[in-house]
Amino acid sequence: MVSVACAIMVAVSVFMLLEQDKRRNIVGLALLSAAINIILLFCGKLIPNNPAFIGNIDFNKLSNPVPQALVLTAIVIGFGLLVFLTVLIKVQKHD
Amino acid sequence: MIDVMLPALLFSLPVIGASLHLYLSHQKNETATNVCQIILSGLFFLLGVFLFVKGGNLSVIHVANWLAPYGISIVFDGLSKLMILTFSIVMLCINIYSLQDTTLGCNHGQFYAGSWLLCLGIMGSVSTYDIFNLYVWSEVMLVSAFIILASTQKNNIDRIWQYALFNIMGTLVMLLAIALIYGATGSLHMAEIAKQFQSGFTPQMQISVMLLMLGLAVKGGIFPFYFWLPDSYPSTSASSTMMLSSLNTKAVMIVMLRLVWLWQLTQFAWMQNAFIFLACCTMFFGVMGAANNFRIRDILSFHIVSQLGYIFLAIIIPSSTAIVAVLFFLIHNLFVKTSLLLCSGIIEQRYGTCDLSELGQIIKACPLLAGLFFISAMSLAGFPPLSGFWGKLLILKVAYHDELYVALLVALVVSLFTMYSMIKIWRYAYCELADTVFKDYETFKLSKIQLLSLVLLCAVPLIIGIFPNSLLEVLSAIAAQVSQPRLMLDAVLGGGV
Question: Do B182 and A43 touch (CB under 8 A)?
Fold first, then answer.
């Protein structure tokens, strides 16, 4: 399920990135980075509905906290880049 | 103690520099900005020298005392120390020149802040041993490259857009590859991953490693993805082009060199063949792009791509002489390309254009500039007493020993075409009369600051060219360290500071 969703997101984002309109490019990049973030999250040992630390004593059922930390970093960086690109478009409009 | 203090100082200096410049550019105090920049880059150069001389053979820093396979390791081996030293010298020269660079726009502080952040990103990416950390550093490099590209008077947002889209996609591909590698090995530490790769390389692992290389190739400007580079680099000011070409693209090559040797990627024939094919294409198409261009800075930007091909070719050849060749060529290219771009910057400041059809007879207007340009241009083309000759000779020798005759032939042909476009610049800009006479060609003199930076940059290829042995000795010591990844792995994984 997740892989199919990621594939669709990547396909849509490639379509958006190939367009001339810069606003559409931004949306495409946002989608692409979201898809890759999901892949990153699911590459580690992630067990849905299980937290990383709290409440579990059985170590086999613990979720891996590392990919969660990684994806958090990646989301923040991706967001920063998107903000920069949006500002770039805004500056161009004023010229 | 010195093992911890020195890197801490090295990493904090760029941060201090960037924040200081952001503050000073708010105050609009130009003298303070310039003085501060020269002091800081001088200090950075001294720290680089100190690290290189006193830093010891290998120092490993485990960030926040998380031990090796779990935490982030910052490793200062010969390779990263040499690169930090070289980058600090080049940065000092560029900063001296940029004091008087009028094409930078009114706000120099923005450029300085961006260049310090770029410097931080580069130091991180050449010394880190954690692949996710590598991704974060490359994002730091990306954002600061945006700031540097934007510091010009011209409106070049469309060009920045090209740069931004391609490089963000490159880093996203890198992130995807990192996710896949983490999924396959369960570790983010390069040394730990290398240990797992030694015991077996599944096809999934091969593909994810190749994907990481692909992401780096997009960011470096290797053949199928190179066209953003000659499109965006010349669109900004001369200082910015120098900064990006010398620091940004070369750091990516160093990261590639480290990964190829640490993970022993040369054991796969298909990977090696793919790399060699791409390297030949990069060399050839780069030089062809230069041949049909008529603006000096565009020609030089295409040559950045073409010279990357040489480096890329030697990266994948599995012998320790190849590492010496890579490092020698990289250092030579850093200085020569920067000084050529600096010449074009001076011409652009003086005549307001760098179109070859509008320029002419600079040899009469300023013989000194012509002479210094001639040294650098001949060095780039590879004429004997200069550094380019030794760099190319080493790479050709390594290719010959590895029996890559086609690559050898391509490299020779490309070198001929490099000569051709250098002669083109020399003939149209320096010797002949311009087609359209729109400027008076009265003589002009280089200012002291321009002369100082240009002479510093031209002296290095001359010295290296005449006395290559001392540099070769240093480089072969580093190559011996890089070419024995097992020793490096043991040193990084076991113990530390």
Answer: yes
pLDDT tens for residues B343-384? 888 888 888 777 887 777 777 778 888 888 888 888 888 888
Chain B residues lying within 8 Å of A85, measured CB to CB:
161, 164
Closest residue by Cα to residue B110 from B218, B21, B11: B21
Contact criterion met (CB below 8 Å) for B370 and B343: no
Burial class from Cβ neighbours inside 10 Å (0-12, 13-18, 19+) for residue A48 reads: exposed
Read off the pLDDT of residues B95-136 as tens digits, 9 standing for 90 and up.
888 888 777 776 788 889 999 999 999 999 999 999 999 999
Residues B428, B194: Cα–Cα separation, whole Å: 52
Instruction: Let me know: does B323 contact B313? Beta carbons within 8 Å.
Output: no
Under DSSP, the state recorded for B295 is B
Residue A86, strand partner residues:
none
A83 reaches B (C-beta below 8 A)? no
Considering only CA atoms, which of B425, B467, B497, B201 is closest in space to residue B328?
B467
**Which among A36, A91, A92 has CB closest to B172?**
A36
How high is the ipTM of this complex? 0.92
